[in-house]
Amino acid sequence: MTGSGFAEVDGARLFYEVAGDGPALALCHVGVGDSRSWDDQFDVFAARHRVLRYDLRGFGRSQLPSGPYSHVDDLRQLMLVAGLERASLVGVSMGGSVSLQFALLHPELVSRLVLVAPGLPDHEWSEEVERFGRAEEEALEAGDLERATELNLRTWVDGPSRAPGEVDPAVRRRVHDMQLQAFRTQVAAYERTPPPGPPMQLDPPASVRLAEVQTPTLIVVGELDVPDMLRIAERLEVGIPGARRVVIPCAAHVPNMECPTEFNRLVLDFLADSD
Known about the structure:
The protein has nine helices and ten strands. The chain has helices spanning about 40-45, 70-80, 95-105, 125-140, 145-160, 170-190, 225-240, 255-260, 260-275; strands spanning about 5-10, 10-20, 25-30, 50-55, 65-70, 85-90, 110-115, 195-200, 215-220, 245-250. It starts with a strand and ends with a helix.
C-alpha cells in the first residue's frame, strides 16, 4: 500500500505513512518529535526506497493507552501492515534506541541500521542531563507544558554551546509544536488508572549486547549535541562490529532537521554502498 492511515496495534491506534518503491526503509523518530520530524527526508528517501514513517505511542497522532507495551513490537506490526518483510532502520535518539533493540531481537528483519544520537537506557548520564531531567519533571508536575517544552528545546535543539537565537527558528518552532503536542497526549494518558507502561526494555540491555549486532551500522551524531550523546556514539562505534561513526558539525540532537542535505546524503550513500 501507499498513503497514510491508522493501524490498531496491541490496543493502540497508531498513525503511519508509506511511500515509494525499492528497498524497504523504516524511520523511527526522535523523542522531541513525531513523524513530521522526517519531513525533509520522507520524499527524498521515497525516490529510492519504500519508506515507512510513523508516530510512536504518545506522539503525533498515535494513542497512548493504559498498560505495558513494546515499541519494538509496534514497529514489527506496522512493518507488516506496510508490507515490509525486511527493512533498513533509521532511528534518531529514542527512535535510535528502538531501532537498536529491534535489530537485536529481529536481526533477520533488518538490512541496514542507522543510529542517530541513540539513547542507551543504562547510560550513566551527566549532571547536566540529570539537571535537565529534574527541571523537566518539575515543570510537568506543575502543569507548565510550555516551560517543559522550552527546556527540551534548550537542551536538545540548541545544545550546550548555542543560544536559542543561533538556531534556525523554523527548526525550533517545528520541534516546539511536536513536543508540546506529545506532552499534552502523555500527561493526559498518565492521569488515567492504570497509567501506560512500562515500555519493554531488553534484559540484558542493548549496551552489553552490542557485539551481537549483525547488520551494517552507521552511527551519526551532531557535534553540538550534549557530550553524553557524543560519548554514547563512540561507545557504539567500538562495540558494534564494523560500525562507522560520522559527526555532523552543524547540528545538535536533530541533525536530520538542522542539516537535512548532509544527513540525507550520508544515509542514502550508506544504504547504496551496502546494497
